[in-house]
Amino acid sequence: MNLSDWLPFLAAGGFVLLHIVGFLHVLHALMHVRTSQGAVAWIVSLIAVPSIAIPVYWIAGRKRFSGYVHSRREQDSDLRRASEDMHKRLRHYELKSEGLFGRAAKHLINLPFTRGNELELLIDGQKTFDSIFESIASAENYILINFFIVKSDKVGNRFKDALIARAKSGVRVYFLFDEVGSHKLPRRYLTDMEDAGILCHAFGSNRFWWSRFQVNFRNHRKIVVVDGREAFIGGLNVGDEYLGRNPKFGAWRDTHLRLRGPAVQAIQLAYLEDWNWAADGFLDLHWDGHAETADQAVAILPTGPADQADSWQLIVAEAANKATERLWIASPYFVPDGGVLTALQTAAIRGVDVRILLPDKPDHLLVWLAAFSYYEETIPFGIKLMRYQRGFLHQKVMLVDKRYAFVGTANLDNRSFRLNFEITALSKDPGFVDEVTHMFEVDFEHSRTVDLTEITKRPIWFRIATRAARLMAPVL
After folding, report:
1. Is the pLDDT of residue 328 over 70?
2. Cβ(323)–Cβ(392) under 8 Å?
3. Handedness of CA 411, 417, 419, 421 (dihedral sign)
């Protein structure tokens, strides 16, 4: 028999083999996919079109960020010893009556509520970048940098020059960036910093061959730490649009946070875990935190796909369940899962003032469209959806009653719940909570409340598009 005679048998064998492999993936999906809806979708796809579904499953169907989890749990690693040392040092500042969220945070994140901190709310880009550049210029020992997006534009080049200047003066500089979020960052940008002695690494698929299938997981954190004494986290990346210089978006509404005190050590530990994964190396950092006279209470919540549970999703649900007066949330993206949506509905039914502040302008069309599909599942329950009018809203902030305020990088969507590495500061300091409350009130003055007609009176093609976009919620 010649080759042409064998082709039908080879094709049949390949077809059978492909479906066998697909069936093995079905078993994996059945055991490991996060939700029953997701499991059903994957199973149907893997059976019907395995040639397409199998590679997509490797990229989008993974539940945990492998490798990172292993390095975090190694008993004899430098990282583990640094973590244990930090916890011992923080015990001196730990609050004994941390409250409901403190207990939840400690259980989920294993980081305590600490006293002795100083918090400064940084509203919008000018104030944030001025503060960051001032802190960078004061660095004497080291600077830790981690951003989801870094651009080689006016502010991005100023940022690079500031880091190079400190590196040339003998300060150790470590630069971490997400390889997906910063995919447009030119190689020359990194070369300039490396030539000055700055260590640069991409966070993502740069460790093992199988980690290249984990592109759906991203490091969405924004962290700057200077000398272990001062840190910054929040919503702003490094780019001109965050200063309102993008003609498409105009004014850019965002919120960042400057911290001093023991909480900086917890931020350092989160950075060290990220660096350990990306660079496969350990950093010699300062862990001698000291109390600030402001004595504000804060807990640091680094969350992500290496956690044992979907930590940020559970924290948001806990916020909705425990709120008694108000639950105000600002997020550029509103694609909640069923658990969070039910918690928000229940809170509103109990009489809690639930407000979700969203942008009126889209930056990601699918996510913007998907949010409309939730109108009929929120507004009739008493949840107020509000659209910000003065430019693009990108802040990630949450307020629970007059008791707790959250500022960080996490959105109200599935990516932040399960796929992205995020970091958030939670404070119960009355003065800080009042500041966040006032900030929300100003934002509400420049927003409009949404009503159901904004979806019910739309053309049928628009409503279909919102439902189709919602189907992509697990990866948006």
Report:
1. yes
2. no
3. positive
Q: Active-site residue among 274, 394, 413, 443?
A: 394
Catalytic residue among 25, 220, 322, 428: 220
Structure tokens at 277: 């994964």
Tens digit of each residue's pLDDT (9 = 90 or more) over 5-56: 555 655 566 666 766 766 676 676 666 666 665 666 666 667 776 666 666 6
- Out of 12-16, 193-197, 418-422, the most confident range is 193-197
CA 251 remoteness from chain centre: 22
Known catalytic membership, residue 457: no
Please report which confidence band the pLDDT of residue 75 belongs to, taking 50, 70 and 90 as the band edges: very low
Question: What values do phi and psi take at 404, rounded to 5?
Answer: -135, 140
Q: At what angle do helices 311-322 and 99-109 cross, to 10 degrees?
A: 170
Could you say which of 396, 413, 428, 443 is catalytic?
396
- If phi > 0 it is left, if psi is from -120 to 50 it is alpha, else beta; for residue 426 that is beta
DSSP string covering 50-75, please?
HHHHHHHHHHH---S-TTHHHHHH-T
- Tens digit of pLDDT for each residue in 460-469? 888 888 888 8
Assess whether 222 carries a catalytic annotation. Answer: yes
Known catalytic residue at 310: no
Q: d(Cα 361, Cα 386) in Å, to the nearest integer?
A: 12
Q: Do the Cβ atoms of 408 and 386 come closer than 8 Å?
A: no
Q: What is the pLDDT of residues 257-312, one digit of tens each?
A: 999 999 999 999 999 989 988 888 889 898 887 889 999 999 999 998 887 878 89
pTM higher than 0.85 for the full model?
yes
Q: State whether residue 250 is helix, strand or coil.
A: coil
Candidate list 28, 63, 87, 227, residue with the active-site label: 227
The DSSP bridge pattern shows strands 252-253 and 392-393 to be parallel
- Which residue in 25, 201, 222, 256 is the catalytic one? 222
Question: Of these residues, 78, 153, 240, 401, which one is catalytic?
Answer: 401
Percent of the chain exceeding pLDDT 90 equals 57
Record the tokens describing residue 271, joined without a space.
């950075």
Identify whether 402 is a catalytic site residue.
Answer: no
Q: Say which residue the tokens 């660095």 belong to.
A: 139
Strands 334-335 vs 412-413: parallel, antiparallel or unpaired: parallel
Of the chain, the percentage scoring pLDDT greater than 70 comes to 79
396 is an active site residue: yes
CA distances from 85 to 77, 116, 287, 291 (A): 12, 19, 8, 17
Mean local confidence (pLDDT), 61-83: 61
| Whole-number pLDDT of residue 367 | 86
Q: Is 183 tagged catalytic?
A: no
Distance (Å, rounded) from C-alpha 350 to C-alpha 397? 22
